[in-house]
Amino acid sequence: MTPTTASSLTGTIEELRDRAVAEGRQLLLVAASLSNGPDIADVYGVRSLDDSTAEVVRRAQEHATVPCHLLRVSRLGGFLAAAVVDRDRSVSQLDLLVADMREMLEVRGERVWPIVTVAVRACHDDEDVWDAVRDARSTLVIAQRDTPGGTSWHHDSDEGLGSGLGLTLVRDLAVALTEQPDELHLAYQPVVDLRRGTTTGAEALLRWQHPTRGAVGPLVAVEAAERTGLIHPLGRLVLDRAVAQLAAWRGRVVPGFRMHVNVSPIELREASYADGMAAVLDRWDVPAPQLLLEITETALLADDPRVLRTITALHELGVGLGIDDFGTGYSSIRHLHRLPIDTVKVDRSLVSGIATSPADFALTRAVLGLLTTIGATVVAEGIEDAQQQAHLLAMGCTLGQGYHLGRPVTADALFAGSSWSRARATGMLGA
Ligand code: C2E
Ligand code: MG
Ligand code: MG
User: 349 C-alpha to center of ligand 2: Å?
Assistant: First the structure.
């Protein structure tokens, strides 16, 4: 099996397409992969995987009614081929071809069922064939993830794997982290004692001021960082700045004040995370209990032994652990119970309706009751008006966060409005 080179690939596909057009037929690009290739290599060896791939390719090339032209073979059982089919029968002809590719294989005298994942892209008469190659490839990557062993046709309306925007966003985030750290900064939102109006903590929230795009939302930046490994340097930057800020606030905050820092579960998978945390606390001479790490997905946490090891080490270090956005789907009381969690932040969605909907009120009261039963400190998120605050207080919730109590602001601005003036503004004087 000799793969053609990249340069001959262009000519070959274009020639095939021109031939198809001249005959009034259609060129299909067929990207395929042996999804159980890694298993075949593990059990029977890499050469057996090559042989298996060659056999699937041979079936395509020598197909009785729809012969394929092999364009390229990649490692671990992937290949790209082209077939010329009749326009009005393209789907049925492709099905015939693929059915043969999916027949039982014989590998070292044993029968092996090939899981052949196929992506198909029909070439238009007047387009750049390389666009079709790109689409076939990205459709295959998505199919391998979502529908292994199936056949996926690319549609022109399909989203690609990632837009060019995603690529440049990642590059720009890497540039910000390595060369322009001033583009990244933290805003701080107060966590407030709902009875007294005092600021008992602050949540550090990432802000990214991109030189041309302007402000990029933290969820966009964090998602891009999680996809690319940049979450590790990003998390380190956030942690270092937040702990440095805690050190700078020494003497200005109430006893027991805690800095909340959001952390991605992916960061917690790193074996060295807890050691890195100890080093940061040491560098700024900040006691571990002043820090509260907010984590979102409890399900992921409880099931991953690497994460559990990190969480245990952080707990031993004395760092507080909190669950963020509780009530949004990923968190469950059962998982909470298995983890050394001391704080639960009840999501805004559970707070927004309590003053207007009796059903929401009842639900939130029940959730708060459960959380209190397991001994968690509860912080209500997203309090937007005085009524919501009053209802939460009546339900026994004493800590909250939200635009009504204070928006995310710069470190200097956090204490500029005193807790006394906040208390007056929110009608809590004398409480
Ligand atoms: P989160 O941790 O749940 O943070 C609360 C979000 O709700 C913040 O959005 C905050 O500005 C917003 N918020 C606060 N009070 C209210 C309110 O009363 N009403 C409404 N509508 N919204 C309110 P933000 O700053 O856009 O952050 C979004 C999310 O991005 C955060 O949600 C967190 O999951 C993530 N994030 C932010 N900074 C970091 C970070 O440094 N690391 C990681 N891993 N994630 C971060
Ligand atoms: Mg948070
Ligand atoms: Mg939250």
Answer: 14
| Tens digits of residue pLDDT in 327-383 | 886 667 777 877 888 999 999 999 999 999 999 999 999 999 999 888 899 999 999
The domain limits of the chain are: 6-158, 165-430
Of 314, 240, 208, the C-alpha closest to 270 is 314
Question: Amino acid letter at 212?
Answer: T
Q: How far apart are the first and last CA of the chain?
A: 81
Alpha carbon nearest to ligand 1 atom 8, residue: 205
pTM for this predicted structure: 0.75
Best CA proximity match to 28, nearest among 42, 17, 44:
17
With a CB cutoff of 8 Å and minimum separation 6, the contacts of 205 are 186, 187, 188, 189, 218, 262, 408
CA 203 – ligand 2 centroid, Å: 7
Q: What would the CATH number be for the domain defined by 6-158? A: 3.30.70.270
Whole-number Å distance between alpha carbons of 156 and 96: 24
Is the Cβ–Cβ distance between 27 and 16 less than 8 Å? yes
Ligand 1 centroid to residue 164 C-alpha, Å: 26
Q: What CATH code would you report for 165-430?
A: 3.20.20.450
- Summarize pLDDT for 30-78 with one digit per residue, the tens: 999 999 999 999 999 999 999 999 999 999 999 888 888 999 888 778 9
pLDDT tens by residue, 254-289:
999 999 999 999 999 999 999 999 999 999 999 999
335-340-345 Cα angle (round to 5): 70
